[in-house]
């Protein structure tokens, strides 16, 4: 699936949001990579602390976790990052398919800023971030009541819907990855090898490898297993099929192996999962 955003209209929308709300906002692609950020220039508290590689790693993990939750729920997700700042992310949807994300941050609550700085200062010290500049930049962060934070995130969600409504995003569903992904999902019950997929889609092995690497950053084997386990979980939730039959439905004939890989991914066996959701 090829997704393209109208650059001019996208930046205008983000700039209007920033002018109105005063909170940084960005548009990200399906792979959680930034496309457009407003404001684009100028140093902030987060930019300053992210110069530390360990902080950058922790921040990136927070972002990734938030993107995945928003992608799974297809709804807005408000959270506190590892440094205690409020952030939010919302999916951009096209016919219930996530084609990108809008993220805002970083915001403080309206409780005493000195109290909030004391907490963050201790976190900074854990990364050897010491100096008045950190405090100076921290004190420039926007402060809001929880009610206002919810309001600005709801406006962000409206922006995400506006992108689709005004056709600021163009989705080309006939792309190579979309054809590969569709074929795999429609044939989970069958044998899915590199040879089978390449022959069906009429592409070479290198093209298949590069397409998956670019779109999902996974090998073919791992991606197929991911889709099989996601489908198995869905069948366990929505049908009365026996666990063994669910395994066969997603193309895994060995029940014991199915149980092991399911537990490895979801930290619970298929039978335990079925019992848990039936309570």
Automatic annotation (TrEMBL):
Domain HTH araC/xylS-type: 178-276
Top-rank taxon: Bacteria
Secretion signal, residue range per the UniProt entry: none
MF-aspect GO terms: DNA-binding transcription factor activity; sequence-specific DNA binding
Record flagged with keyword Plastid: no
Keyword Transferase applies: no
PROSITE patterns associated with the record: HTH_ARAC_FAMILY_1, HTH_ARAC_FAMILY_2
Keywords: DNA-binding, Transcription, Transcription regulation
TM region(s), chain numbering: none
PANTHER family reported in the protein's UniProt record: ARAC-FAMILY TRANSCRIPTIONAL REGULATOR (PTHR43280), REGULATORY PROTEIN POCR (PTHR43280:SF10)
This protein's name: AraC-type DNA-binding protein
